[in-house]
Sequence to fold (84 residues):
Amino acid sequence: MAKYLDHPSWYHANPAVQLFLQQCRACENPESIFREAFEVFFMQGNVEVLYGMRIAATTGHMEAAYLVGLLGMSGIGQSKEDAL
Fold:
């Protein structure tokens, strides 16, 4: 996933990249889960996608863990105690 930086407009122009990213999501790749949840949460405000971000965090994805903790501390998506 690191090879494909987060540029969704470029992904739509390249079918091979789209296929690769779909396969990553199907295999529950933590980076793929994080990117999708990040985009949906911040673009659409959908708090339900934070569940996916928590899954990525529990698999060791550091950015997901950090963001889940910050959002939890602010009272979004989970309790402050869970965030700590």
